[in-house]
Amino acid sequence: MMTIFILQTTLPLALIVWLAILPPHNRAGFWMLVLAAALVTLFAALKGIWLFPPWWVPYLMALLLLGTITRHLIRSPVKPWLPTGPWGWLSLVILAGIAGLAGAQSRAALLARQIPDGPSIALAWPLGPGIYLVANGGRSSSINAHAALLDPSHPLHAGYGGTGYGVDLIAINRWGLRAGSIMPADPTRYAIFETPVLAPCAGRVVSAFDGRPDNTVPDMPEGNVAGNHIILRCDGIDVLLAHFRQGSLRVVAGDDLVLGQQVGEVGNSGESSEPHLHIHAQLPGSPRDPFSGVPVPILLEDRFLVRGDRVDMMASPDADSP
């Protein structure tokens, strides 16, 4: 995860610094570098997991790029259109390759933001008041790690394919930070830890599991994917809420829940590298493989949430309007 944090920031910045300090001595190279920097910044904004630095950093990099371009156009003398030497042509080809790759990846990330065709389920917001960031969400693995399981050739598809349209939620403060430092080991230092988890639909609990300890960040022990969790059946569709804090579950299998009823608290149990709430919907799986059902896209707050989306729920849904 730390490698991702570094690369999604340093790659766009490296191109912007190149443009600012040592721009190509020809107009074709200059504008190809501008295009590469812009597309790499867009790629990082769409595909990056902005837990750290916060979500607004790509916007800051875009402003920095715009300022660098403006400064160059004002101060730079007229240059020839094409490179005059082999190194100029080589840099032009390399930049064209970077721009092409970043453009293709950005396009894939944009397409993954569209809700899949077919039926979906609308769910109420499953967490207490706060500001939330989507760490995973979307229709393909370009912006949703869970979507890799949609591929029938994936080795985990048969047992866990139902999680394909899963959404991972974290809490952030007004500055976009989810913890007091980059990646504290103590899960209690994350803003979302112990946040109440609410039933996003009325239904019956068909499975409930508690007792798994909360992991030290970024440890992610294998053997229990969902950790402490419940499966709530609503109108024939199973909704999984996972990674609860140990000992926080308030329901058991067979309970009938009303919309908004608290079922537990967010923790860091199961295969979870840091505290978050995982939620997905599927048609019922088999008793042996409960997460194997056909995945169903979900709408939260009437939105098909994708990586990088933010949801402000600071005011309680039951609060009186001013």
Description of the structure:
With 322 residues, the chain is an alpha+beta fold. Helices cover 28% and strands 18% of the residues. It is built from five helices and 13 strands. The strands form three sheets. Strands 2, 3, 5, 6, 7, 8, 10, 11 and 13 form a nine-stranded antiparallel β-sheet that branches. Helix 2 packs parallel to helix 4. The longest helix is centred in the N-terminal third of the chain and has 26 residues. The radius of gyration is 23 Å and the shape is elongated. The two termini are 42 Å apart. The C terminus is likely disordered.
How much beta, percentage-wise?
A: 15-25%
Derived from helix and strand composition plus strand pairing, the structural class reads alpha+beta
* Mean pLDDT figure: 94
Per DSSP, the total helix count is 5
Major sheet size, sense and barrel closure: 9 strands, antiparallel
Q: What sequence of helices (H) and strands (E) makes up the elements?
A: HHHHEEHEEEEEEEEEEE
Shape: elongated
Percentage of residues assigned to helices: 25-40%
How many distinct beta strands? 13
Contiguous uncertain segments of 5+ residues: 316-322
Output the radius of gyration: 23 Å
Quote the distance from N terminus to C terminus: 42 Å
Nutshell version of this structure?
By secondary structure, the chain is α+β, with helices and mostly antiparallel strands. It contains 5 helices and 13 strands. Strands 2, 3, 5, 6, 7, 8, 10, 11 and 13 form a 9-stranded antiparallel β-sheet that branches. A two-stranded parallel ribbon has the order 1-12. Strands 4-9 form a two-stranded antiparallel sheet.
